[in-house]
Task: structure prediction
Amino acid sequence: MSSIGPGVERILQYFDSKQGKKTLIVAVIAASLLVTSFIYAKKTVHIAVDGQTLQVVTFYGDPQRVLKQASIQLSPQDEYRLSTPKLTEGSVIEVFRAVPVFVSYQGKNAKVQTAKPTVEETVMLLGLAGPGWKLVPERNARISPGMQIQAIQVVELIEENEEPVEYQTVRQPDPALESGQEEVLQEGRPGLKKVTVKKRLEDGNEVSSEILHEEIVTPATDRILRAGSRDMVETSRGALRFKRMMIMEATAYLPTDGPGHGITASGVPARRGVVAVDPGVIPLGSRVFIPGYGVALAADTGGAIIGDKIDLCMEAAAEAWQFGRRDVKVYVLDD
Result:
């Protein structure tokens, strides 16, 4: 008599049937896959935390469970980041401990407990990120405990302004007027221009501006003057008009000096008021004025009088001797 119960016998009969054999094969395959996946789920990962790196062998696929396995506690503000999309062999879990930092913005000061690694990510907690903010330290600077962060609001404005265009003063030389005299021929009027400017504001304060475009709306009208070009020099006889002035080396001579026996190269008698010149510099017959000597006639020449040199005729030897050699201003007078 068989010792196998009827229930067990039915199970054996089922697995002995065609359908039972199929079911058994599927069960064996499923069990094999389960064992294989369990074996391959084993992995070695690294945890960077509190300045050290831990190596952990785990079967978990959830980073939080791996951290718990390694007895690493996270506060509500602490964060972690995984080096790979999923936890696999060689993955690194980096733990960021929350530290206090201080953020100043728009006249406010905020203390923030953050585990974010950079300045930019930290200020994002306050809604201050984006191109509209300038951050000090820079955006990618690493966070450190007690760090002072300044968030400066940046605004760029485009403005169109109307500005005056200054008129120019034009002087037209006029020899009919003495030097220094002026007459208005046309009054000047300022013009108008439209200027497009880009301004940069930081926390409401303008820090830079750039002119993008200028357009003349109304041209300016020049102020036109007649400007006297007739040069005058004051003498004991009054103001005299001159054509040019030169600095010359002057000496003195007496009427009896030289081979002319008192007659100059131009044939006039040598006397006070007659000077010897280089005709290539001052033409003979020109009237000149020398301060301290007076008005004279360029009527003589001399072998040593070449270039910017002039010889003044004196009446007395003592006067000539006292005069000696000196630089003088020589005004060539108008005819």
